[in-house]
Design goal:
Collagenase (Catalytic Domain), alpha/beta
Length: 224
C-alpha cells in the first residue's frame, strides 16, 4: 500500500484476477476507466488462498467508511424508520440487472440494514476493465465504490460477483477457503459456483454488525 494522492485508497476484490475470455464487448472496450486504487488484495486467490492481512484491513476500511456515512445521515434524521445504505449505480449500466438482484438478495436476507438506490449515495457502482478483477474501494471518507470488471463477470456468475462485493459494503470479509454455499468464499470454489446468496452465518453477522456497529458509529458522531 502506498500514498499516490492526498487520499489513501485501499481495495478489496472477489479474489481472482479476470482471465482472458476472448473478445470483450465493444461497449466494454470503450468504457471510461475509473481511477485505480494504489493497492489491491486477493488478486491471485484460489482454493488454497485465505486472504492477506492487508486485504482484511481493506475490507474493514470499506465497511467503516460506509458505516460512518450512514451514521452521519442517521444522526441528522433519527426518526427514520430503517437503517438504509444508499447506492448510485448510474456508472455501471451494464450491470443494472445484477445490481438490482444483489440488492433484492441482501434486503431479503437481513433485517437491520437495507440497500436502496438514490441520491446522496454512501457508495457507488462502477464498471470497466481492470486486470485485478472486481473489487471494493474507499478513500476512508465515505466515498467508496464497487468496481465490476467486464472479463471477470463473464468468467464467473455475475450476480454472485456483485452480491459478494456488496457483502463488503455490509461488513463481511473474504473467506476464499469456504464452500460455494458461502457467498464470501468468492472465487475460491471455482467458476462452476453460481450461488449468489449469503448463508445463515453471513446473514447473522451482517445483522450483528449493523446493530452494534451503527450504535458505536452514532456515538462517535454525537461526540463531534
Amino acid at each position: 500500500m502506498r500514498l499516490s494522492t492526498p487520499m489513501l485508497s485501499v481495495a478489496v476484490g472477489l479474489g481472482l484476477t479476470a482471465a482472458a475470455l476472448g473478445t470483450v464487448p465493444a461497449a466494454a472496450a470503450q468504457a471510461p476507466q475509473p481511477a485505480r486504487a494504489p493497492a489491491s488484495a486477493g488478486s491471485l486467490a484460489g482454493a488454497g488462498y485465505n486472504g492477506s492481512g492487508e486485504e482484511a484491513k481493506a475490507n474493514q476500511a470499506f465497511f467503516d467508511a460506509v458505516l460512518k456515512s450512514v451514521a452521519e445521515k442517521r444522526a441528522a434524521n433519527p426518526k427514520a424508520a430503517a437503517v438504509t445504505v444508499v447506492y448510485n449505480a448510474s456508472a455501471a449500466p451494464s450491470f443494472s440487472t445484477q445490481i438490482a438482484r444483489s440488492t433484492q438478495i441482501w434486503n431479503s436476507s437481513v433485517s437491520n440494514v437495507k440497500l436502496q438506490a438514490g441520491s446522496g449515495a454512501d457508495f457507488t457502482y462502477r464498471e470497466g476493465n481492470d486486470s485485478r478483477g472486481s473489487y471494493a474501494s474507499t478513500d476512508g471518507h465515505g466515498s467508496g465504490y464497487i468496481f465490476l470488471d467486464y472479463a471477470q463477470n463473464q468468467q464467473y456468475d455475475s450476480t454472485r460477483v456483485t452480491a459478494h462485493e456488496t457483502g463488503h459494503v455490509l461488513g463481511l470479509p473474504d473467506h476464499y477457503s469456504g464452500p460455494c454455499s458461502e457467498l464470501m468464499s468468492g472465487g475460491g470454489p471455482g467458476t462452476s459456483c453460481t450461488n449468489p446468496n449469503p448463508d445463515a452465518a453471513e446473514r447473522a453477522r451482517v445483522d450483528q454488525l449493523w446493530a452494534n456497529g451503527l450504535a458505536k458509529a452514532l456515538a462517535e458522531v454525537d461526540q463531534h
